[in-house]
Amino acid sequence: MKQLMLDHAFLQFDRVWFHVAPDNIRSQKATMKIGAVFTSDEDLDLSGSVLAWKCYRLDRAGWQKTKAARLGAMHHKS
Question: Largest CB tally within 10 Å, which of 31, 57, 60, 70?
Fold first, then answer.
């Protein structure tokens, strides 16, 4: 599902931003696993109140690299 959503996003945009709660280590690791890069800790108002977020950026080229690596890994398992 994530791959479909990111593929769709990259049809229109060159970059996708992720904002992950500082205590959500599982999501931080998953975000980096798909090729996103940590950029900063920010206090942002994303839903009506200012909260701390860890900000990650995923560029189209990084996403393509991650997809290619996953496809390569899948072919080596066969």
Answer: 31
Whether the per-residue pLDDT at 78 is higher than 60: the answer is no
Tokens standing for 22? 């500082």
Q: Where are the beta strands (DSSP E) in 1-78?
A: 15-20, 37-45, 50-59
- What is the number of other CB atoms lying within 10 angstroms of the CB of residue 20? 20
Compute the distance between CA of residue 60 and CA of residue 12 in angstroms, rounded to an integer: 10
Report the number of distinct structural domains present in the chain: 1
CATH number at residue 68: 3.40.630.30
Residues 6+ apart with CB under 8 A from 76: none
